[in-house]
Amino acid sequence: MLASLKKTYDQFPPTFWVVAGTHFIDVIGNTLLMPFFALYVTQKFGVGMTQAGILLATNSIAGLIGSTIGGALADRFGRRGIILFGLVVSALSGLTLGFVNKFYLFYSVNIFVGLLSSAAHPAHNAMIADILPAEKRAEGFGMMRVISNFAWIIGPTMGGFLAAYNFLYLFLGDAVLSIITALLVFRLLPETKPQPKEKAEQESIWQTLRGYRVALLDRPYFAFIFASILMILVYQQMYSSLSVYLRDVHHVDPQFYGLIMSSSAVTVVLFQFWVTRVIKKYPPFLMMVVATFFYMIGFTMYGFVATIPLFILAMVIVTIGEMVGMPTSNVLAASFAPEEMRARYMAVFGLTWTVPSMIGPWAAGLVFDNYNPNYVWYIGGVLCVVAMLAFYFLHIRLGSKPKFQPAKAD
């Protein structure tokens, strides 16, 4: 066992493990709060899921602006400083949210949080791609999934008990862990940005921001983004609508919801690294088709089943799709990107999360408040079918290109 762990450790450079360790701490803080955010808003302010969905949507719009600026700055000045900025701002602004008692003030602060705390996301993904050679990126992103989900075992479980006692402790815990992460990044993490070319050194900030045109006009890349948005539109319901759905329709309390989410994390911790080593041998766009198929099955199940064991089974099926799709999608985004524009391409890749965050909770809220809540899961199944067809089309058009070939066997 120890020999196997040492072999895995030796496969990655030390800097990667510093990124992984700090990410682990930060994700524990995020997962204390994230799964319970919609529950907090609806309970604290007495609003419906539609209003909570609009709140989450505006946060995502602000996050899109923040990540766009952050991606350009990370390509221009480097990754480390932007990551530190995101952590500190996330801690301070998130803590402020915990003490706001008026919904309109909460709404305003939430926009500010989304704008500034999202700036570091492209820098983080670009840093991983900087550190690892192309043939190791699938395993590297897969390992980050393992680390994230190991944190998911801890975060939601703790969050469920803290939420049952006092929601304020969720905000306090997230802030403390963000500051700890920032201190570790400051002390231990070097800059990883590739040496810029002479032309890039002379670019103005405005020219760097204009570089987004290259990514936005990359039609194959944008087709990939569109297909991913459809897939993630369904996937993100597990972080926003699912908790409210289980509470209101099936009377599942926060502790059991934390258990359901933790079952996903345990599955990833046990199987992600093995799954990643298997799927990297197959065409990546086809693996996205496979991932979306499991999402279709798992999320549609929530519209038909009514017991906690079956809720957990549905979550495990969703998690299989997650283990296949998440590392593959990150590798594909990095494969599309020119090296000097890596963070900006990763920022555009962030559309696959921010657009669903803008649309998904709000649309699900409309369904919850006006129609049969089960329709959310049926519609999700249909969207997954469309995404599967889109990924398969991309495989036909792009799968033969060298940068989209499967990794060679070890």
What does this structure look like?
This protein is an all-alpha fold and 410 residues long. It has a single domain, classed as MFS general substrate transporter like domains (Growth Hormone, Chain: A, Up-down Bundle), CATH 1.20.1250. Helices cover 80% and strands 0% of the residues. The protein is built from 20 helices and no strands. Helix 5 runs antiparallel to helix 7 (121-131), helix 5 packs antiparallel against helix 9 (168-188) and helix 8 (137-165) runs antiparallel to helix 15 (254-279). The longest helix is centred in the first third of the chain and has 29 residues, at 49-77. The two termini are 21 Å apart. 53% of the residues are buried. The mean pLDDT is 80.
Could you tell me the radius of gyration in angstroms?
20 Å
According to CATH, what is the class? Mainly Alpha
Tell me the strand percentage band.
Answer: under 5%
CATH homology group: MFS general substrate transporter like domains
Assign a percent range to the helix content. over 70%
Number of helices: 20
- Number of beta-strand segments: 0
Largest sheet: none
CA(first)-CA(last) distance: 21 Å
Overall pLDDT score: 80
Low-confidence regions: none
CATH topology: Growth Hormone, Chain: A
| Global outline | globular
